[in-house]
């Protein structure tokens, strides 16, 4: 009998060797001791499962095969490495497969249990034929394509609340009418050349809780309600917090919790199978980042335990 009063679990690639060795931008990941605290806090809330590798065929369904071949073989230029944010090694490829595999596994869970969680993921800067912004494979696009091709979803909402616009996701899904991409981001932040999402809400530097939540209520809610999705990918970026090294917004931890509560309670009430990925977070205070990450888990578990979609 499960020790948890719910059927949910989370997938993680953070316990792989690829995340503890090889190249990584210094500001991308939590220090190892804080990463262990994050995993420990998550495991106190729900079972943690190691991420399976993504099958290459699913990556090839959305990414250019020649691009994938070159990156698998390490045939990349210095310019491409700079665009990604760190130098190529085999660990780059393994991290991409692990992160995307975790999102696919969480998506399968969402279909079966109502809610699926990847403790990482959200690599929304990867384009069909190039890597950018710490993103080699676009995990959400891969899983969305799998859902559509398998007939498991007809109208997918990608709600991207990372502080950076999901430019790769917007580009890759622009011609797909069955997917609505929504990005709420800092307008003057990276990427400096924006793509066109289904809905873009660019916010000024320093936007705080009240203005951010109002934008969700007045600009986002009417559009997503009219779209009538039957599946949700939620990119719960923690880089909207004040003090983030790569963000320009100024939400408080309480504001991020209010954001997560609103989104996830709406999804649970609407009966939407939901995949949650954590996306960006580079706060100068690692403990604050951990607390917000765990708050996202709490919001998801509370919402979907109150309004269960299906049972395993």
Summarize the entry for a quick read:
The protein has 312 residues and is an alpha/beta fold. Helix content is 43%, strand content 12%. It is globular.
Question: Could you explain the architecture of this structure?
Answer:
With 312 residues, the protein is α/β, with parallel strands linked by helices. The chain has a single domain, classed as Histone deacetylase domain (Arginase, Chain A, 3-Layer(aba) Sandwich). Helices cover 43% and strands 12% of the residues. It has 10 helices and 8 strands. The chain has an 8-stranded parallel beta sheet with strand order 2-1-3-8-7-4-5-6, with helices on both faces. Helix 1 (32-43) links the parallel strand 1 (10-12) and strand 2 (48-50). Helix 1 packs parallel to helix 10 and helix 9 packs parallel to helix 10. The longest helix has 24 residues, at 90-113. The two termini are 13 Å apart. The model has no long low-confidence stretch (mean pLDDT 93). Keywords: Hydrolase. InterPro entries: HDAC_classIV (IPR044150), HDACs (IPR000286), His_deacetylse_dom (IPR023801), His_deacetylse_dom_sf (IPR037138), Ureohydrolase_dom_sf (IPR023696). Belongs to the histone deacetylase family. It comes from Deinococcus deserti (strain DSM 17065 / CIP 109153 / LMG 22923 / VCD115).
